[in-house]
Specification:
The protein has about 260 residues and is of the alpha/beta class. The protein is built from 10 helices and 9 strands. It has a 6-stranded parallel sheet, with helices on both faces. Strands 7-9-8 form a 3-stranded antiparallel sheet.
Amino acid sequence: MKEKDDLKIAVLIDADNVPHSNIKGMLEEIAKFGIPTIKRIYGDWTKSRASGWKNALLEHAITPIQQYSYTTGKNATDSAMIIDAMDILHSGKVDGFCLVSSDSDFTKLAMRLRESGMLVIGLGEKKTPPPFIVACDKFIYVEVISGKKTKQEKKPRKSSTKQAAAPEPENDVDTINDEMIQLIKNSIEDVADDNGWAFLAEVGALLIKKKPDFDPRNYGFSKLTPLLKSLNRHFTIYEEAVKDTQIKHIYVKNK
């Protein structure tokens, strides 16, 4: 089985449904999952609204695919992207796909690619409809990869719980509600040993399987560990140092 860093990823971008302002951050995010060997973007480049992509395409070696709008009210870009995705799938040259769009029209495509054993990563704005999100193995919101630190990371730890419960609107941070806390608790129980302790990495992996758009950054935290530490009324964290290394094994338990 290939290592994660060796996975070949086809990146297909819907220019009509994602912003061009942070393409660098998007590609850096995709690189965490593998090597983006195919990078294509679809749109009608004769339209003025697509002009903002030009510099980004040159800087990041993304191939633009011209798709004219054949008729008013129909999105020919979607069809072109779907046809290319299936051609790439049958070529056998990649191990996964990253579909960059906020359009639910790609839901069936994501499902079909997963049925063929492909890793499918979705990347879009928070307005993305739930069917497309859950059709992916992992879904990442564009808003959380802007590179800006959240107030939870800037302020002392003692204010973290308060910030998580009542995030300020300008940070675009989601609220950690009772439903999310219960999901975390259930996931810990699912992978815990007889004493109730669960390996944090396994908990994080299970959370993504249950909720593909789960990401600590959605709630203002860079990692899962500080998120759970801010919820110390509900969870206990135990960190065990590995001898002669700087590695720590982190475990979590429900209170």
